Amino acid sequence: MRVVAAVGLGFLLAVLWFDLMFDVQTVGHHDTELPPEVLVSIAAYYRRVTTTARPMNRLVAATMFVALAGLIGEIVRHDVGAWVAYPSLALTAAAITLAAGRTVRNAVRLGAQIDAPARQSVLARTILRDHGLCFLAIACTLILQVGWSR
Known about the structure:
- The protein is elongated.
- The longest helix has 31 residues, at 82-112.
- The chain is mainly α.
- It has helices at residues 2-23, 36-52, 58-77, 82-112, 117-147.
- The chain has one domain.
- It is built from 5 helices and no strands.
């Protein structure tokens, strides 16, 4: 189960890294509205990965499920100590809940470019914060899983 969890978490970390490569375009812009070229770049990326990449975009959701299943399996099988297993599950569940509950919806909306530039800018900045939190949670989980397992 440790391998299943680690592979799933590693894949999710890689996906978050790619998302962050686009999200960081928002950094350093302090006006309410991001420059048009930044919004177009980020929106095109999210349109591709959330909408036009079907069915491949379903792989991320499936990997989330696999990672959670691996972490739950660790608990059931006592593959790792409780001090690794439960924080790992909590961190991963929190990241997945944030992604499923807000980040994906915001990314789809940004990709559609149906809002005014000011609203799109808020969405882009919110997505950056969400992805940063998710990256931190998944990275900490991987460190726990790989570095401090029994």
